Amino acid sequence: MKRFLPPGPESVVSIGVLAVFGLAILFPFTLTHSDPVTGVAKEHLLAPGWTHWFGTDQLGRDVLTRIVYGARETLPAALLATLTGVVLGAFIGGLAALSAPVVDAALSGIIDVLLSIPELLLALTVVILTGFGPVHAAIAVGISQTAGFARIIRNLVRSLRAMPYIEAARLSGTGFGGMIWWHILPNAFRPVLGLAVLRYSMAILSLATLGFLGYGAPPPTPEWGLMIAEGRDYLATAWWMTTFPGLALLTVAFATNRLSHAMTRTRGDQP
Amino acid sequence: MSSFRHVCIQLIRALLILWGAFTVTFFLLQMMPGDAVMVRFMDPELGLSPEQIEAMRVLYSGSSSPVFQYFHTILRMLHGDFGYSVQLGVPVRTLIEAALPVTLRLAVVGFILSLVWTLLIAIGASLLPARPLRQIFQAIPGFWSAIPLYWSGIFIIQVLSFKLRLLPVVGVGPWEGTILPALAVSLPIAAPQAKLLLQQIEETERLPFVMAIRTKGASQRSVFFRHILPNSVTPCLTMAGISFGELIAGAIVTETIFGLNGLGRLTRDAVSGQDVAVLQAVVMIGATGFVAANLVVDLLIPLINPSLRSSAGWKETSGS
Amino acid sequence: MNTQRPVLDVSHLGISYDGKPAVENISFQTFPGQTMALIGESGSGKSTIAKAIIQLLPPSACVTHGIITLNGISLPDATPRALNAIRGHQIGFIPQDPSSSLDPRLPVGRQIEEVLRLHTSQRRAERRAHVLHLLEHVGFSEPERRFLQYPHELSGGMKQRVLIAIAVALAPPLIIADEPTSALDVTIQGQILDLLDRLREESGSSVLMITHDLAVARDRAHDMIVLRHGQIAEQNTTRNLFENPRSSYTRKLLADSPAFHSRPATPERPVSGTQPAIQVKDLTIAYGSRTAVSHLSFDVQPGTTHGIIGESGSGKTTLLRCLMGLIPPQSGSVHVQGKDIFSETSAERRQRLRSMQLVYQNPWSSLDPRLTIRRIIEEPLRNYFPEGQAWRQARLHDLLERVHLPLALLERYPSEISGGQCQRVALARALAAQPDILVLDEFVSALDVTVQARILELLSELQKELNLTFVFVSHDLAVVRQIADTLSIIRYGKQEEYGDAEQIFREPASPYTQTLLRAIPGQQHSGKAKREGSKEW
Amino acid sequence: MPVPAASPLRSLPAGLFALICALSMPGAEGHSQNRTITYLDPQEHTNLYPPAGGFYPNGGILSQITDRLTWQDPTTLEIRPWLATDWSMNEDDTEYTFHIRPGVTFSDGSPLDARAVAQNYQTYGKGNPALHFPVSEAISNFDRAEVIDPLTVRFHFTHPAPGFLQATSVLGSGIVSPGTLQRSFDELGTATNIIGSGPFVVSADIPGKEVDLSARKDYNWGPENRPARAKTDQIKILVVPEDSIRVGALLAGQADIIRQVEAYDEEQIRHAGYSLHAPSTRGVNTGIAFRPDNPLVADIRVRKALLHGTDRQEIVTVLYSENYPLARSVLSSKAAGFVDLSEKLKFDPVLAGQLLDSAGWRRGENGLRYKDGHPLRLGIHISLPHPQNKTMLELVAQQWRRLGVELDIMSGSAAGVLLDNLDPQRTPLTVSEVGRADPDVLKSEFFPKNRDALLQKGGQSNKVQHFQDETLNAMLLDIASRTDRAERLKQVVAVQEYLIDKAYDIPLFEEPQVYATSPNLTGLGFEAVGRPVFQNVELNRP
What we know:
Number of strands of chain C: 20
Largest sheet of chain B: 2 strands, antiparallel
Shape of chain C: globular
Oligomer: heterotetramer
Radius of gyration of chain C: 25 Å
Shape of chain B: globular
Distance between the termini of chain C: 40 Å
Structural class of chain B: mainly alpha
Helix content of chain C: 25-40%
Largest interface: B-D, 67 and 68 residues
Number of helices of chain B: 14
Helix content of chain B: over 70%
Radius of gyration of chain B: 24 Å
Number of helices of chain C: 19
Strand content of chain C: 15-25%
Number of strands of chain B: 2
């Protein structure tokens, strides 16, 4: 594992931050004791203070609690989105890079077509086609990211294919399957992982954008994008409602971004 | 001769991509549940009977098969006719004519601003005297790409317009009204560009010729501006081409927040109202922007980088 | 020793990288009009010393002690501004790799002009005239045209001339030449060194030449310092060093340098008679409209070594790939063990590929960085032989022993072992397929002479024990001379000469071969530079 | 030493700053005298065919550019003359005769006479299928219009139409030029195509962004409280969907009037010295209507339980302000025929629990109620036009959860929501509200051929299996056709009681339209249903 996770203060801090949010996903009740869905209506719109660190929202729900439980909605969904994008992208991109030039040209053309359609618009269309909801939104974001992944993976695999050690392996009698399994996959794994981590932070933002535009989880789900979207109406009255979920989003996205940065940098073997 | 051939090939490729984008969206939109006629005329405010609604539907979309409509729509679009917005009751062309300048202004100003940021970040990260300062500049792209656009937009309005009263956001002229949204949209556009530029600068700095130039007695600043920067911008151009297409997607959010009535707002309303003709037109505009930006970049790269004059291709150089 | 005032005075220099000492206690002086050579293998610290002198060490390096003065000015104490005024003006620097040492984006004239712009108050027109003069001075015949050309339009030798023009533009008292010719073909190498000698004589500059090549140093330097592990192994005049080396390390270096030895006498091996292992007939290979190789023919007898010599761009790599069957020829044929390799069935092809292994030039890029050495060597064993785990294990140990590698290496990754070890692994992998023929592509070019000598010994040993046939491709005549029985010399894809190796070395028939042989460094003595570099090539 | 070509390090940020400063100047001091009044509306207008004026942004424009035959006094709800100087009707309300004021012209110069009025009503009352004009929901039983003389017009009805007089005063009955009605329906999406006789004329329409109004200098035929020309020359109606931007822009002096101020922002607006206006919409109160076709709410005990299990007071206190009075009936307290039914709407969670128990819904492990293994889970879609509707539903959900009932708040694409709302199985509940100052409003909301809030068989939806309430429908028809005003109002009371007794609707609060204006602006008036009237608006220099 140490071959994949580089040391260094930056990645340690990033991993630490992500671990806290991981804790929020797995055991939210260790971080907060309130109910994320039902609030005390009388205590609505309270400013941050000792009892409510991040204040309360318009229904008297603790904003911190909603952020903690919101991690559960936003982060796994982003993971699903990224996985969808990576798997589809790796399939299309890998297929293109490993196929005959004609197939490669055709697939590359398809990739370009998908790239030319604005990502968000594609995601919105897919959500409307598949129906609203967190899972559908995640898949939509994944599909909208697929083309980008596919292109990068195609170029990566093509450059790997040109490496002397691939030819050396073929001269050592390794077949096509063996070449992919033993040589291409292990060598593509880390760059793709680094890329996926970067895309993960983008997926978080895209999902939050869908939530913001009203295509994500239904209320009263404490989804971050939705919280920011709702909170902005209260900006003049209750700044904390949009500020803190925004900061949470920023923190996670920044941490994953830096992690990806650290991962792709070490040993400089980025594609 | 070969460069003419190259341009021709790229043009044909661009047209194929446009055709592909049209086809994909046409059938995606056909698959949507319900339609714009329903969304608009089933509104209880209008109190129309189901029979009347059905009559409306026949009027708008005709009763022909999707395949016929597909060819019909292509032919229409080739003549510059984008059809009729069911939702707003206006020809799509009128809508686009009103919306496109707004978004183009936003895109152009935002894009220029993003280039300014990119350059400033690169300069700061390379030339500032103190190492911690340089590191802060190096972290900016990651930080900016982590900011949700709608969130920064909200804060830009609240702080710059309402608190500091620098610029009004409502009832202002087209260019003035573009500045704040362009500022908001420029951050996420600048982030990946700056990240790539920093990466390239780092790579260029490792190249032997940089060391060779230092041995001539050139100062750090002179080496940076005369050699490192010009040698690092090529891949960023590619990225810039791609990000131009994303500006339109970014516009959906920005225009919602800033109350601009450009393509983004049009798109958003068209999506929720399932106004297929409008969506189709928007996709074609976005795709055209994307393809055109890439063509321009493709033709620009050899001008900037003499060693690529014989063989240029943005396909291979694009990255994350 | 020398009564003149030294140009450069280095004393007790110590440098460390991240706290680990890289260079210790180095002291030397250079004098006007003289060439001082710093000799050493990779990692000996020679480039570090050069960078310390010009004060361009990477941030991780740090000068721990010692003094560096240039004409009495202490360089480590100079301000950045003062240093910029010294670099290029007082110190000219000729970098190692001409192909990557010019800004690819600017015409070369502009790049020469830059040094004038930085250090003189000349106006534009004056600078231009100066640059044109310099271009002419370093041997360009059409300076006006060259001025506007981009680096990618020039050959390696031309680029090196441009870099020399930059270094000598302001006639600096000190010129540091960091491996100035190691990336160039042997014929061009001589011309460049001649040029450098001429300029030194004209300007009276002091030259500090950094090189790994004893032969080059012998031809050009007045004094020499042999470095080993960051310390001075020997400091001597060139004559003394070669005639009477004091340190054992110098003696070992001299012994391992192929340039100073002809081939050790080997028992006469059959050069003709039996069926050739490889038979190439009238082979022509084209890439698109360009002909890379034309009308090549040679035979290789089993158990012998055929050397193929060519400078860069001669088509030797193309030939080799065709030999392996990786690219088809336009005309002509290749027979391996009597069979035409372009009309074989896929089963035959698989069988031939097993018995004919290719070993690559770059030690690292031909080994998959994500696999352990064990996995790498096992690959052909798994693919070609159905035997089980135990057999493979035994075979693995046997192979490792054959290439003289310790068992401990098995679980390491390629990035964790040295270049020489990598080449041994590559050799073991090739041998694992139990081949009859090994095709070796610039197999030892990237290695230090001492390592190179060991690998060459290993090859001879393996050939004897396993009765292997070698095709040995190289640009280095001295190395090929050590190992080849027969020889092809190719130039621009055409065969210049083919025949018995000793015969060719003794009595070269083609003028090109004669030029090549003459250009081998180590045959002349310092100061006696031949005037060949004045004409353009 | 050579001098480097440039030092962007220093000059760039400075230049940028200068640029921003330079550009910010006009914004900071741009308020010239006699300037245009800026009105911010959260939504853009859609089709401006006058009968579609019920949509607020449409109403906001139509009420400035069109006049009606009559004017309804917002305080007394009395019908007063406007374009019609006087009128008469026959015994059974099947014939109405109006005398048109002489000298009125449309903004294109053509005369507004009996012929024009007749053509308007013919279109509103019967629609125009050829040009796709639908029928106005305000006009029932219309037969034909007859031009008696150039300034006299008579309308004939198939059945008694007692609501017609009031209907001539609503926004949906604004008179437009005959030329406007000869355009196709779709062309009326462009505001400049609407030619009316009102105090303002549309001078520009930038779709989705802006509608500019300029005053008609020759206007002198307004109703009695505002007879003369408009006090301001220019009104700019801007579309600004973001709540926080409308409020912020108002407070930052970038706008003069804003519509739709949410309750939580009222405090700071008042605090900053700005004025709030909250005209009532006087119709059916905002509430939650049941679709009894869905078996879950077919049982009156369940509906009653939810009615009594909803803490309406908490909703009003927590989410809204005094501008949102607690509903005391299905109808607004300011509507004609209102009856106070507070006693029947009491919050009583104990009773609610008992009712649910008796209906067979037992609490399960997790606190939710189950019957035959199925949870009591009711779906509802958010109704975006209503203030804080999503938050309100979340609060209702929070309250119902204590009863053991799960309120499933759904979202979806516009088409999906429409389809869902027509399917009682998916949406046993819907948010109901309609603004109109006439008792007919009850019919508009609940009658199967109208909005059909309860979704009856034979109504708007073909998904309904059984539910039909003939009693209710008969009562609603009765209101629409009863001629005697007192009798009519009695029937209105009966319908309100019936709706609550059957627990078809949970009325929550009386919905106002909340506007805020800058302190130096005066003269903002309102229609009977809360649409703004800009005729008397003017800015007083501070």
